[in-house]
Amino acid sequence: MKVDQSAVVPQSRLAEAKRIGALLARLRHARRLKQSEAALRAGISRNTAYRLESGDPGVALGRVLRYLEAIAAGVELKALLAEDEPSLAALTQRERGRRVRGLTAAERQELDF
Questions:
Q1: Residue 113 within any structural domain of the chain
Q2: What is the pLDDT of residues 45-60, one digit of tens each?
């Protein structure tokens, strides 16, 4: 029988589980892996990977660590939590919008209000 862990876990711990899940999803995205591929590498189902990335507190810690190893071999959990992983920084850089060219004087004048 499946038990909903979110009913017995304190709100602060639920927030931590959601943060870990979001960081794992972000790291997977930064490494350009599909969720199904990462789940296959970790030896877990895609549904478990989805629950893990959603922050379900019922997912065992061992599965979290296997999933992390499948996404980024050698990266420790503390490095993930500190967001001290180069591919996360590269993803942030890719997401940041960049201006292709500088504004001309006429464009600056038009924007000056």
A1: no
A2: 999 999 999 999 888 9
